[in-house]
Amino acid sequence: MDSPELYHVKQQFTLGAYKSLVDLTLPDPDSPDYTPTLVYQARAHLALDSPSAAYSQIPKDTENVALKAVAALAHFVEAESDSSKEAERDAALEELRDLCVEIEGDDADATEWEKGTARVLAGTAFARAGEIEEALETLGAGTDTRNLEAVGYTVQIYLSINRPDLACKEFERAKRWAEDDLLLQQIEASIGLATGRDAYADAHAYFTEQLANPSLTSPRLLTARGVARLLRGEVQAAKSDLEEAQTQMGGKPDAETLGAQVVAAGLGSAKSADADQLFSQLSTEHPGFPLVLDIERKAHLFDELAAKFAVPPVAAA
């Protein structure tokens, strides 16, 4: 059973309140909450695209597998966008593979939470590296892994490769053993957004309920509800959520918020120039964002087809 303090930390991480989490004072190193809180705080730094801050928090001489996995993931994230650091990137992946081997078996010197966390962090890196099969195997896809966070990430991977059917199977399997907690509800909301189940009503209701929590400030929840509202055709309400999310991010939206703003600007009576400007910002700041890559592929395909099209001569009068 988690302490109330650790429960609140997990709640902040699950709901994307990363800024509050990184500003949190760590418990005493002798407290049983110390290592889990440190892990969540370092992961919050990674979510805020600050891998150096995440790595700097981890004790250099730690033997804890969860902390070692966080440090390896931080190294991977720091190197993944720099082509000159390919060796460091590959070394981080190998370190995570070694950790996954180390924690196999009942005699591993780690708790079940630590081993599960290490697998989730390793699976995260493998998925980001494009090693989808390895990521799914590491996360225990298709098994009763009894790790709800691993299930949540497995669902996200399946949704990202357009396999909502497999995502739904993972969710239904988890419902047989998992308690009806916050993360399970969030997994269901994610599937609802991807599939349009119940006209996005359940996902919208979930995000609205969490935003009513007076002890929580999460721009990512606002972005999620903004996306749900866009899908429901509530464009003005969606724009309001996305603008508030940007404000809470200090005026600089993350990739997801900016991507949603691009879509919102292209709907309704908005000027196309606004959408063009936002898309230019998105493609410059986040060139690997799925929306940017998709439009680039379609533009390239259009140019190829246009080059093959021969304009017939104008008929003589």
Automatic annotation (TrEMBL):
Alphabetized UniProt keyword annotations: Cytoplasm, Cytoplasmic vesicle, ER-Golgi transport, Golgi apparatus, Membrane, Protein transport, Transport
Compartments where found: Cytoplasmic vesicle, COPI-coated vesicle membrane; Golgi apparatus membrane
Molecular function, one GO term: structural molecule activity
Cross-referenced Pfam families: Coatomer_E
SUPFAM superfamilies in the cross-refs: TPR-like (SSF48452)
Repeat as UniProt keyword: no
Role of this protein: The coatomer is a cytosolic protein complex that binds to dilysine motifs and reversibly associates with Golgi non-clathrin-coated vesicles, which further mediate biosynthetic protein transport from the ER, via the Golgi up to the trans Golgi network. The coatomer complex is required for budding from Golgi membranes, and is essential for the retrograde Golgi-to-ER transport of dilysine-tagged proteins.
InterPro entries in UniProt: Coatomer_esu, TPR-like_helical_dom_sf
GO BP field: endoplasmic reticulum to Golgi vesicle-mediated transport; intra-Golgi vesicle-mediated transport; protein transport; retrograde vesicle-mediated transport, Golgi to endoplasmic reticulum
Record's keyword annotation contains Heme: no
Domain of life the protein comes from: Eukaryota
Family recorded in the similarity comment: Belongs to the COPE family.
Primary residence: membrane
Gene Ontology CC terms, in alphabetical order: COPI vesicle coat; Golgi membrane
Protein name: Coatomer subunit epsilon
Membrane topology recorded in Swiss-Prot or TrEMBL: Peripheral membrane protein
